[in-house]
Write a sequence for this structure.
């Protein structure tokens, strides 16, 4: 699995360097030494972009390829499941359309499922290409991306921002792998134009709907920014992320109320409680959507992990900034999904649905890289391997 044991960072990164790190400021005579920082200093933006660099890096891809070739588990079984899925089919026919219209709860659903599934397929096929080095998979991924870039012009109706976020999270993953690891993609320029003109404007300004919206939109925005090498769009996405994550996951250090996202208008306790689905007792790891259902919470936690993973690949590690929030959130929800009774103080004593297979990326970052003990999250993560790759919350993610 790409995230189970991360290989060392490659010394040969594609045009990628960290932003400069300067020495610590010295204390002058008579000056007080500054107090120790209570939180990690914000990570600096990278100087250049790394490719492929949306959700998965070349060292990760090479690592998984080696594990699969060796028949090692759980990578080999996850690969076999991926290759047996409809998303890896070489006979898939793309279903592009000029206008994708998506209403609330998929009513209407005019091209919404088709677009999401074609984007997931393009990513799955790009992974299949890299691991097998069979060019048929790369050509199929290109065929799907070219079919959509030839016709897509807009997303409409009330769910347009979320739809654009979902599809726009998968497209750049596929495009990065194909553009930077396959021999030729003549249509890559046109694809770049449509993600810039059709997708990015819909997601870049965020949303004040339930938090999974802005997080999914920001995942799309940062991926598109990396593909386009658009520094301003990348920095804006990181800014949205830094504003939204503290407003999506509560920790006791926040005080008596959760933080609110900039511009949200949630200026009274009553408004905040309503936005948090009526939950008025706050505990470490509670999410803004916990008392709505765990499925939407899973979408949010998944997007948080993926944004942080992409930024880490780009040389800007955001995980330390969000580690406490994300580990508490994953732990709280994993604990109850594993069967720990829900106290009456949490969502009236009952939680709806389940998270889905969304813990792998965050668990690897927090437990394997940063060394946090995450017993419940580890149990749930291992129980769900190899992950089901057919849900929108985990579309073919390695």
């Amino acid at each position: 699995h790409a995230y189970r044991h991360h290989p060392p960072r490659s010394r040969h990164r594609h045009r990628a360097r960290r932003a400069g790190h300067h020495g610590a400021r010295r204390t002058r005579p008579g000056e007080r030494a500054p107090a120790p920082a209570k939180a990690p200093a914000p990570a600096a933006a990278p100087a250049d972009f790394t490719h492929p660099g949306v959700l998965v890096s070349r060292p990760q891809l090479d690592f998984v390829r080696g594990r699969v070739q060796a028949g090692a588990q759980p990578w080999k079984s996850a690969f076999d499941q991926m290759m047996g899925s409809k998303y890896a089919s070489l006979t898939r026919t793309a279903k592009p359309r000029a206008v994708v219209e998506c209403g609330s709860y998929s009513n209407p659903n005019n091209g919404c499922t088709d677009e999401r599934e074609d984007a997931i397929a393009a990513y799955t096929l790009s992974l299949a290409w890299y691991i097998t080095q069979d060019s048929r998979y790369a050509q199929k991924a290109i065929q799907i991306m070219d079919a959509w870039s030839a016709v897509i012009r807009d997303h409409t109706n009330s769910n347009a921002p979320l739809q654009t976020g979902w599809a726009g999270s998968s497209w750049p993953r596929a495009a990065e792998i194909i553009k930077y690891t396959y021999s030729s993609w003549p249509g890559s320029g046109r694809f770049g134009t449509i993600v810039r003109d059709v997708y990015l404007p819909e997601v870049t300004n965020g949303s004040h709907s339930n938090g999974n919206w802005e997080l999914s939109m920001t995942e799309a925005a940062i991926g598109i920014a990396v593909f386009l090498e658009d520094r301003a769009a990348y920095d804006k996405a990181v800014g949205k992320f830094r504003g939204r994550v503290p407003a999506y996951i509560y920790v006791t250090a926040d005080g008596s109320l959760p933080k609110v996202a900039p511009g949200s208008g949630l200026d009274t306790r009553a408004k905040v409680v309503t936005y948090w689905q009526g939950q008025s007792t706050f505990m470490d790891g509670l999410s803004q959507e916990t008392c709505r259902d765990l499925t939407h919470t899973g979408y949010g936690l998944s997007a948080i992990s993926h944004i942080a993973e992409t930024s880490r690949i780009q040389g800007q590690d955001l995980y330390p900034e969000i580690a406490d929030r994300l580990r508490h959130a994953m732990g709280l929800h994993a604990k109850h999904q594993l069967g720990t009774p829900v106290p009456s103080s949490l969502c009236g004593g009952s939680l709806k649905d389940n998270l889905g297979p969304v813990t792998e990326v965050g668990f690897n970052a927090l437990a394997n890289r940063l060394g946090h003990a995450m017993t419940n999250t580890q149990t749930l993560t291992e129980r769900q391997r190899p992950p089901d790759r057919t849900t929108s919350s985990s579309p073919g993610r390695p």
Notes: The CA atoms of residues 45 and 316 lie 6 Å apart. The chain has a mean pLDDT of 90. The chain has two domains: 63-203, 248-391.
